[in-house]
Amino acid sequence: MQVKEYMQTSTITVSPEDLVSTAAQRMRGHNVRHLPVVSQGSTLVGVVTNRDIRQAGASDEPHMAEHELIYLLDKMTVQEIMTSQVHTVQEDTPLTEAGRLLLAHKFGCLPVVRGDNTLVGIITVTDLLRAYVQQHEATHPAC
Questions:
Q1: Residue 47's domain spans which residues?
Q2: Measured between alpha carbons, how far is 91 from 69 in angstroms, rounded to an integer?
Q3: Total count of domains within the chain
Q4: What whole-number distance in Å separates Cα of residue 17 and Cα of residue 71?
Q5: CATH number of the domain enclosing 117
Q6: C-beta separation of 127 from 7 below 8 A
């Protein structure tokens, strides 16, 4: 089995210049936790996660009001909080190799790219779980 069989190809993305608040809205609106960050031409330049956004909004002030948090996220760009050193896989990467990377690094996703670093999709832990369940059901139909 290869990554291309289970990856998501309709990937929601952001650009490095987008506001963090925009990234947060896209995540909520599409019910996702990871957004690949792409430059013009769909070249992958990073990943931003819901954890990155939460940490960006974290404050030492115990009583930061919600409107203050929104104001803060409206001033920061994705480029300021994204991870730019991103592990990736390609469409023909074996699914087991992608799973090993996710486990070894405790990632929630891996962007799927072509040789020129053009984003073609994303594979998540949920996608791997779906692959496992489908394989298990195919080999053990009574369970």
A1: 3-139
A2: 39
A3: 1
A4: 17
A5: 3.10.580.10
A6: yes
At 116, list the tokens.
């020129």
Find residue 38's DSSP bridge partners.
Answer: 44
Phi/psi for 34 (5° steps) reads -135, 135
d(CA 88, CA 65): 37
CA angle 46, 31, 13 (to 5 degrees): 30
Model pLDDT for residues 86-134, shown as the tens digit of each residue: 999 999 999 999 999 999 999 999 999 999 999 999 999 999 999 888 8
Is the pTM of the predicted complex or chain greater than 0.85? no
Ranges of beta strands (E only) in the chain are 34-38, 44-49, 109-113, 119-124
Q: Which tens digits make up the pLDDT trace of 18-66? A: 999 899 999 999 999 999 999 988 999 999 998 998 888 765 555 555 5
The encoded tokens of residue 73 equal: 């996220």
